Amino acid sequence: MDLVEFLNARLDEDERVATAAHWDGHPDETCWSVYLGDQEWHERRMVVLDHEDNGVALVSDLATDEAGRAFGVAIAASESSDEDAIARHIARFDPQRIAAEVDAKRRILVEHRQDSLPNGIDLNECATCGGVNEAWPCLTLRLLALPYAQHPDYDESWRP
To answer: Are the C-beta atoms of 154 and 5 separated by less than 8 Å?
Structure first.
């Protein structure tokens, strides 16, 4: 597996997870927010755990008001956590944002593709960075892969 294949596989995973998190089935309308308070919640819930398997936050389906309008994601944190910070972090990385990041990273992959000659022979340089004689995969792609360095398929030779 080369670096571009690795990145595409990770982006596919990110996209699948974000798409699955669209609880209301309308990905273009999903924007998570934080609501801390007493309401009656739906049955589906997910607990966010910390490194010691302590419950950090309880995430429930979108809550609804008396008129049936959805208004947020329920977050309830454990006593030992900073519930506001955790809730805001979860809401900040909602499925819409992840989808936008995946799209932007895919565009970077296209922009920094391996350059080739008109006859189809691949060059060992980036189509964008090649003018500075940087070997392909370029620094941009290697930096793009860095957040995935703990993945078992990550190749240490890609590390910038």
So the answer is: no
Nearest to 3 by CA among 159, 147, 137, 149: 137
HEC readout, 2-66? CHHHHHHHHHHHHHHHHHHCCCCCCCCCCCCCEECCCCCCCCCEEEEECCCCCEEEEEEEEEECC
Give the type of residue at 52.
E
Reported as a single tens digit per residue, the pLDDT across 115-153 is: 888 888 888 889 898 866 678 899 999 999 999 999 999
**Separation CA 96–CA 19 (nearest Å):** 9
Per-residue model confidence as pLDDT tens digits over 87-115: 667 767 777 888 899 999 999 999 999 98
